[in-house]
User: What shape does this take?
Amino acid sequence: LEFCGTSIAKYECVGSLLSLQSQHHALALWQNNFVLFGRRRSIAAYYCSSAAILSLGRYTAATTSPLSSLATSHQHRKMTNLNFQQIIPTPHSTTTTDANTASSSSTPLPRSSHGLSIIHNGSLLVLYGGEHIARTPIHDPSQVLWLAKRMNGTESWQWVVPTINTSTTTNAAIMPPSRVAHAQAAVGNTIYIFGGRNGIEMGENAMNDMWMLTVHEDETTTATTAKWTQINASSDTTTSVLPEARSFHKMIAIGSNLYMFGGCGASGRLNDLWKFDTLTHKWTNLGVSHVLRGRGGPNILSLAHDKKIGIVGGFAGEETNDGHVYSISNDGGSWEEEGMKGLEEMRPRSVCCFASLPMVNKCVIFGGEVDPSQKGHEGAGGFERDVVILDGTSGSVLENIKPSGGNEDEEEEWPGNRGWADATVHEDTMYIFGGLAGDDASPIRLNDLWQCKVSS
Assistant: This one.
């Protein structure tokens, strides 16, 4: 190997596979055992050991390139493979039109601030709630709840509007009040929603009700029905303390428990963490975080095989990119003092799509709002479309992946910039629906459906 201002005519090296915590740490990994004529030198030295080469494996080059060029070109090598594909389900067979929306009911209205879950072993996506017009919940019963059903185990999907169970006394459909910005998560084949609001201001008409949804398909007629049940939740203490009504909070399922963080309430932006036991229907207050400011639209991730929870980003009066880990234990758990590593490389953001994928031991954050609108929720700020990959154990940032070409005209299939969307995950695949795009002059709500397979 000949460096020292000259060129590399041809070289071969077998490098050991090293795990990068971030792209910018690439050169730091080369600082191990660089020796020249018995003296310790930096990467600019003339000799380097093959054991320090960064994940190159067997590499052969016939080029004129200084070592710095080699480092630059390979520190952007993706360690995670993403395969985005747009899903275009067959429209629902019924095409009635609602006078308030003047929109066909064969497909979901474009929307933001909604919820998305997946059940029945990855064969049924459940879309609920949201806003088609800023700050106005979708009220049309034929638009509030949608199912995307995988057809006979294939890659074909179909939109379905289920029949909602009715009251035996009034014969009216039993449904939660319309809402935006609720939290939604699935335990097994049961979907839970909590809170949300149907007012304009931060705490206006916020809710703290809990509902569960079950979906059933008749094997003979293939008719799909959905049953809503309101849960009469209680506290696990004698104080009967329940979560404050809120919106733009986030919730994930770990085992039979739901964990919920933050959001916007009448008292302002919140930084409290709660656990809901779906077996006993009891809430446990895990306390206010002393390491994170109150915020709306955070990302909440399951880490270390469901032993920890990571909270990343969110809007705390400004877009943020901080993150901390909460360790779960039988006696209540605790917040780790040290923040998650590498988040300074992620552009501050909120209202992103996020997913935990234990199958590949990684977490994914997609897009989000990076520049808040001057009109608040009435407008549309600046949005991203990159993917931030985090380690599934520690939550440390591994890499930040952008579509090749860096714009929406490239051949690579990739969702456009957006925030206020929602995502769900099954095994190694994340699903994304809708969201808000555009700008203050022309905000655009979306109704596209995407899947992203994640592999190492």
Notes: Residues 170 and 304 are 48 Å apart (CA to CA). The chain has a mean pLDDT of 84. Helices lie at 26-29, 67-74, 141-144.
